[in-house]
Amino acid sequence: MQTNRDGLRYAVQEFLNDVIEQGFHHLVNYPQSDNELSLIIKEATEELNYQLLRIDSHQFPNGSKELVDHYMAISKDTQKISLELLSRLQRVQERDIPRLRRV
What we know:
Blueprint: H1 5-29, H2 34-56, H3 65-96
Helix pairs in contact: 1-2, 1-3, 2-3
């Protein structure tokens, strides 16, 4: 988990851009899932914007425990949301590409 501003911004962008990129890639190849994929992409984009704004929305002094806790909470929230969105995306992919289903 990142506890500095720049590292956290990078991590948040990586987590959520991964969801967005995978969603777009699947959408291009399987447009029949447009509604579900568009919703996942929209939620990931909104979450990315929200978390990036949240990083700088504080009044804690640099290096304070409160700031570290603030950054850790953002990191945990981003990881959780990213996993939830990736899980939804995976369900769509498994439905569209039957060979991806586990036996």
